[in-house]
Design a protein that fits this description.
The complex is a heterotrimer of chains A (about 280), B (about 290) and C (about 350). With about 280 residues, chain A is α/β, with parallel strands linked by helices. Helix content of chain A is about 35%, strand content about 25%. The longest helix of chain A has 18 residues, at about 150-165. Chain B has about 290 residues and is mainly α. Chain B contains eleven helices and four strands. In chain B, helix 1 runs parallel beside helix 5. Chain C contains 14 helices and three strands. Chain C has a three-stranded antiparallel β-sheet, with helices on one face. The longest helix of chain C is centred in the first third of the chain and has 29 residues, at about 1-30. Chain C is globular. The two termini of chain C are about 35 Å apart. The chains are: A alpha/beta (about 280), B mainly alpha (about 290), C mainly alpha (about 350). At the B-C interface, helix 4, helix 9 and helix 11 of B face helix 5, helix 10, helix 13 and helix 14 of C.
C-alpha cells in the first residue's frame, strides 16, 4: 500500500477527451471504465440512451437521478446482466461486447445489489470465500481427495476472508449464517464479498439504503478507506445526497435514461437542470 | 386416407391435451406453480362420471355435471389445504407438495376403486360419420371432443378478455402485488383459477375416457404430463398457446406412433418437449420473461 | 470455530454409523441371527442409500429438482448386467468380485455420460422446467431401454433396436429386460459403495467446488457476479449424482435374477425423493436413515404395504407444509417451548 490518496476536498477534476472528467491524478493512466453511446431498449422503451461515462483508475464516482431514471439498468449493462442494444463498454480498455456476467467479473468488475443478494444459507465467511473463488483455486478432485494443496489453499482462503472481514470489523461474525445478519451488516458483507473478487471497479447499488445517519457516516469513511487501501475505482448509486456529495469526486446525473449533467459535487448542486429534474420546474409568475 | 384418419385422431387427442393444458397454463400463469396433481383431477373426474353413469344410472350430461362439480370442489380444496400455505415458499417446496398431492389422489383412487381397470361406458351417443364413400370414418367421440375444445377455447378467451373476473385473473398473473393494491382479491382469484382448471379437467377426463375407455388410478398421470408438455410447447401462460401446443402435440404423437414406432410414442412426445425448450424456451406463443436484478 | 467443529462431528457420526451398522450386520449375517427377508434386503438398502444421498446432492446442495434419478439407476443397472454377462460369457472371466467392480464402474461411467448429455440442455433451464424435463428424460430412457436387445456371440456383442432377431446368448431382451442374470452383488460391495459415495459427497460439500454449488443454489445472479461459472457447477453436482446413481444401479441389477426396464419408472424416482425429503433436504445423514427405514418398514409391516404410497404422499405434503409455512413453523416452535417449559417445571 502506498501513501493514501487525498480525498475529494482537494481533488482537482480535469477534462478528459470526449466530454468527460476524471481526477487529475488519473489523467495519464487508462481509465478503468469507459462507455460510449451506451443504450438499451426494452420493447421500444429506451431505458438508457447515449450514456457516456469515463471513470478514472482511482476515482470515486456517483451515479444519481430520480427513481426510474435507469441507474440500476446502467449497472446491469456494465456487469453484462443485459446486453446493450447500442454502444460499447470498455473495462480497462477491453471491449465487453458479447461477454456474459461471469466473464465481466473476470475482467475485474464487482458489484453489490440494491435488493441484497447474499448466499443466505451459507455463513458469512463462506460468502466471502465465494468472492475469493477465482483468487485462491484448487480443483474438484483435490478437494475430494483432500490433497495437501487442499489444506494449504483452504487455510489461505480462511486467512484472507477474515482479513477482508476486518475492514468492517466483522471477523467475529464469520460463523453466523448470512441470512440472519441485521440489514446494515448484510449490506457491509456484500461489499466485503465484492472486494474479495479483487476488482478494479467496484459498483455499489444504494449502499446506504436502510442505514441510519451514523452508519452512513461510517460507510462514507469506509468507502474512501477501501479506495485508498485497494487502489480501485468505485461507482455508486445513492439517494442519500450527504453521502454522494461527501465522498464522490465526479458525479453523473441521469434522468429518463439520459445523462443530464456531469461534474463535481459543486457543479451538480449549482446546475439548474439537475434541480429541475429533482424538484420540478418552477412556475413562472 | 389412413393419413387423414390419423390426422383426425391426432387432432382429437390433441384437443383433449389442449383442454388439460388450459388448466396447467392458467394455474402456472397466476399462481406461478406447476400443479402436478392436475392430471389426477382428470382421473377423479372420469371416475365420478363413470360411477354416476354406471352405478347411479345418470344420463351422460348429468354425469358430466356431477363430475364437474366434484372436481371443482376438489380443486379448490387442494389449493386451500396444500398450496395456499406455501405462497411464500420456494418453488422446490411447492413442486414437491404438488407431486405429493398427485400421489395422494392416485392412491386414494386405488383404495376406493381398486387397481383393476374399469371399462368406461360410451357416454357419447353420436354415431360415426363416414366420408369419402366409407373410406374415412370418424367416430362420434372424436367429433364431440373437437367441438367441445373449440367451444371451451372461445368461451375462455371471451371470459378473460371481457368479464371483470377474467380481467382480474390477468392482472394477478401480471403482477400479484400490484393487483392486490388495486383491490383485487388475490386469494379468491387464485381459487377461481383452480376451480376453472379443475372443472375443465373433469370434461377432459370424460372425453379422454370416451376415446380411450380404460379407466385406472394412473389414467390421468401420463396425459397430464403430456398436457403440461403441450402447455410449455405453446408457451406457458397463454390460452391460444395451450390450444396450439395441445393439438400439435396430439398430431405428433399419433403420427409418430403410426409412422415411426409404437413403442417410442411417448419418447417422441418428450423429445419434442426437450427440443422446444432448447430452441425456444418460452414456447411458440409465450412472452419472454426477464429476471429482475 | 463452532460451525466447523459441528461439521466435523456430523461427518464423523455419519461415517461411524455406517461402519458400525455394517460390522454389526455382517456379524449377524455370519451367525445367522438375521431373518431371511431382512438379509435379502441388505443389498437393496445399500443401493437406495446411495440413490438417496446422490439425489440429495442435486436437490439439497445444488437446489434443483431432478425427477429422473431412477433413469440413471436404470442405465447403470443394465450396463452393469451387460458388461458382467459379456465378461462371463465372452471371456470366461470368473472372478466375481473383480467382475462386479468392473460392472459397477462401467455402470457409473455410462450413467455419467448420460448425465452429461442430459445436463447440457437441461441445466440451462430453471426450476419447474428442469424438473419436468428430467422427468421426460427418465421416461425416454425407460422407453428406449424397452426396445433394446443385446446378446453376446463369442466375444462379440450383438445388438438390435426394436429388431429382436439377433444371434447369441441373450443379455437384454427388450421389454422382458434382463433374464437369468448371474447374481454377484455382495453386502460388502454395497457397504464400500456407500462409503465411496459419502467420501465424495461430504468432501465435495466442504470444498471450493461444493461452496460454489451452494452459492449458485442460494443466489444464481450473485454467484455469477462473483465470477462463479453457474453451469459448470450445476453440471458437476448433476453428473456426480448421475455417476453414483449408475453405480448403485449396477449393484442393484446384479443382485436380481431378472430385471425389467419398467422397474425404474417415475415411481422409483419419487421414492428416492421421499427419502431425501423425509431425511431433511440437504441432510446426508437424514437421507441415509430415511432410506433405510422406508425400505425396511413396508416389508416388516405387511399391512402398511398397500398404503405405502399413500403414506409417502402424505409424508411429502406434511413435511413440506411443516418446514415451509412460517405459521405452522412458529406454532410448532411455541408448542415445543411450552413443552420444554413444562418439563422444567416438573423437574424443579
Amino acid at each position: 500500500m502506498s501513501e493514501p490518496i487525498k480525498r475529494r476536498a482537494g481533488t482537482k477534476m480535469v477534462p478528459y477527451p470526449s466530454q468527460s472528467i476524471v481526477p487529475e491524478r488519473d489523467l495519464n493512466v487508462q481509465p478503468v471504465l469507459e462507455t460510449r453511446h451506451l443504450g438499451i431498449e426494452f420493447g421500444g422503451l429506451k431505458a438508457v440512451d447515449d450514456f457516456n461515462l469515463i471513470i478514472g483508475r482511482t476515482e470515486i464516482a456517483g451515479l444519481i437521478g430520480p427513481n426510474g431514471a435507469g441507474k440500476t439498468t446502467v449497472f446491469n449493462l456494465l456487469t453484462k446482466v443485459y446486453e446493450p442494444t447500442q454502444g460499447t463498454i470498455l473495462i480497462n480498455g477491453h471491449d465487453t461486447k458479447g461477454l456474459n456476467i461471469v466473464q465481466a467479473a473476470h475482467l475485474g468488475i464487482a458489484r453489490t445489489f440494491q435488493n441484497i443478494r447474499l448466499f443466505n444459507q451459507m455463513t458469512v465467511e463462506e460468502n466471502v470465500r465465494i468472492g475469493l473463488h477465482n483468487q485462491i483455486k484448487y480443483d474438484m478432485l483435490t478437494g475430494i481427495l483432500r490433497l495437501p494443496r487442499y489444506w494449504k489453499q483452504e487455510a489461505r482462503q480462511h486467512r484472507q476472508a477474515l482479513e477482508l472481514l476486518s475492514i468492517f470489523d466483522m471477523q467475529d461474525l464469520a460463523d453466523v449464517r448470512a441470512g440472519s445478519l441485521p440489514y446494515g451488516a448484510q449490506r457491509r458483507l456484500e461489499i466485503v464479498r465484492a472486494l474479495a473478487t479483487n476488482p478494479c471497479l467496484l459498483l455499489l447499488d444504494e449502499p446506504a439504503a436502510g442505514m441510519n445517519p451514523h452508519e452512513t457516516e461510517e460507510l462514507m469513511e469506509n468507502i474512501a478507506k477501501i479506495r485508498d487501501q485497494f487502489h480501485i475505482a468505485v461507482l455508486l448509486i445513492e439517494h442519500d445526497m450527504s453521502l454522494v456529495m461527501g465522498v464522490c469526486e465526479g458525479i453523473c446525473v441521469l434522468n429518463f435514461g439520459k445523462v443530464i449533467a456531469k461534474g463535481t459535487a459543486d457543479d451538480i448542486q449549482a446546475n439548474p437542470v439537475v434541480i429541475e429534474a429533482y424538484l420540478g420546474k418552477r412556475k413562472e409568475g | 386416407m389412413i393419413f387423414l384418419s390419423n390426422l383426425v385422431n391426432g387432432i382429437s387427442l390433441g384437443s383433449i391435451y389442449a383442454i388439460i393444458a388450459l388448466g396447467y397454463t392458467m394455474v402456472y400463469g397466476i399462481a406461478k406453480m406447476l400443479n402436478f396433481a392436475h392430471g389426477d383431477i382428470i382421473m377423479v373426474g372420469a371416475y365420478i362420471a363413470f360411477c354416476a353413469a354406471q352405478y347411479w344410472g345418470f344420463p351422460p350430461l348429468l354425469a358430466l355435471l356431477v363430475a364437474m362439480i366434484v372436481c371443482t370442489l376438489l380443486g379448490i380444496t387442494i389449493e386451500k389445504l396444500a398450496y395456499k400455505p406455501l405462497r411464500q415458499a420456494t418453488s422446490l417446496a411447492v413442486l414437491i407438495t404438488a407431486i405429493g398431492m398427485s400421489y395422494l389422489l392416485q392412491n386414494l383412487a386405488l383404495l376406493i376403486w381398486g387397481a383393476n381397470p374399469k371399462v368406461f361406458p360410451s357416454l357419447i351417443g353420436l354415431d360415426s360419420i363416414s366420408l369419402f364413400s366409407g373410406q374415412l370414418s370418424i367416430r362420434g367421440a372424436t367429433i364431440v371432443t373437437i367441438v367441445a375444445n373449440m367451444i371451451i377455447m372461445v368461451s375462455l378467451t371471451l371470459f378473460t378478455s371481457k368479464t371483470k373476473l377474467g380481467k382480474a385473473m390477468r392482472c394477478v398473473s401480471e403482477d400479484r402485488g400490484a393487483a392486490e393494491l388495486m383491490g383485487i382479491h388475490v386469494n379468491t382469484t387464485i381459487s377461481l383459477t383452480f376451480a376453472i382448471g379443475s372443472c375443465l379437467a373433469a370434461i377432459a377426463g370424460l372425453l379422454l375416457c370416451s376415446s380411450y375407455p380404460m379407466l385406472m388410478p394412473t389414467t390421468g398421470s401420463m396425459p397430464g404430463i403430456k398436457a403440461f408438455t403441450a402447455a410449455v410447447f405453446g408457451g406457458i401462460g397463454s390460452i391460444p398457446g395451450a390450444m396450439l401446443g395441445g393439438i400439435l402435440l396430439g398430431i405428433i404423437e399419433i403420427l409418430g406412433k403410426a409412422y415411426i414406432s409404437t413403442e417410442l410414442g411417448d419418447a417422441i412426445v418428450f423429445a419434442v418437449l426437450i427440443i422446444v425448450l432448447l430452441v425456444r424456451p418460452t414456447g411458440l406463443l409465450g412472452k419472454p420473461m426477464r429476471e429482475k436484478v | 470455530m463452532k460451525s466447523k467443529r459441528n461439521k466435523l462431528i456430523y461427518n464423523t457420526v455419519t461415517f461411524a454409523l455406517v461402519i458400525v451398522a455394517y460390522l454389526v450386520l455382517s456379524y449377524m449375517v455370519g451367525h445367522k441371527m438375521i431373518s431371511r427377508s431382512l438379509k435379502g434386503q441388505l443389498i437393496p438398502i445399500c443401493c437406495w442409500i446411495v440413490m438417496a444421498i446422490s439425489l440429495n446432492l442435486v436437490v439439497g446442495i445444488s437446489g434443483e429438482l431432478c425427477l429422473g434419478h431412477a433413469g440413471f439407476m436404470s442405465i447403470g443397472a443394465f450396463t452393469g448386467i451387460v458388461i458382467s454377462g459379456w465378461l462371463l460369457n465372452g471371456f470366461q472371466f470368473e472372478n466375481e468380485s473383480l467382475r462386479l467392480l468392473i460392472a459397477i464402474i462401467a455402470g457409473g461411467l455410462a450413467a455419467g455420460i448420460m448425465g452429461v448429455i442430459i445436463g447440457i440442455p437441461v441445466l440451462r433451464l430453471r426450476g419447474d422446467y428442469l424438473a419436468i424435463v428430467t422427468l421426460a428424460f427418465g421416461e425416454i430412457i425407460k422407453n428406449v431401454l424397452n426396445c433394446i436387445y443385446i446378446s453376446v456371440d463369442g466375444r462379440h456383442l450383438n445388438w438390435g433396436f426394436i429388431n429382436n432377431e439377433i444371434e447369441g446368448i441373450r443379455l437384454l431382451n427388450g421389454p422382458n429386460g434382463a433374464v437369468s442374470v448371474k447374481i454377484i452383488s455382495t453386502f460388502t460391495a454395497g457397504f464400500l459403495l456407500i462409503l465411496f459415495s459419502l467420501v465424495i459427497i461430504l468432501n465435495l460439500v466442504n470444498s471450493r467446488a461444493g461452496r460454489a454449488i451452494m452459492a449458485v443454489r442460494d443466489n444464481r445472479i450473485a454467484a455469477e457476479s462473483m465470477g462463479v461459472p453457474v453451469t459448470k457447477y450445476k453440471m458437476m453436482a448433476f453428473v456426480t449424482a448421475a455417476v453414483l446413481a449408475g453405480m448403485a444401479g449396477a449393484l442393484y441389477g446384479l443382485n436380481m435374477a431378472t430385471l425389467v426396464p419398467t422397474k425404474f419408472s417415475f415411481n422409483e424416482s419419487i421414492n428416492v425423493l421421499v427419502f431425501v425429503v423425509l431425511g431433511g433436504i440437504g441432510n446426508t445423514l437424514g437421507a441415509i436413515l430415511s432410506a433405510t427405514a422406508l425400505t425396511i418398514l413396508p416389508e416388516k409391516l405387511r399391512f402398511l404395504q398397500s398404503y405405502r404410497m399413500l403414506v409417502y404422499a402424505i409424508v411429502l405434503i406434511v413435511v413440506m407444509l411443516v418446514t415451509n409455512n412460517s405459521l405452522i413453523k412458529n406454532w410448532i416452535r411455541s408448542f415445543l417451548i411450552r413443552f420444554k417449559g413444562n418439563r422444567k417445571e416438573e423437574l424443579s
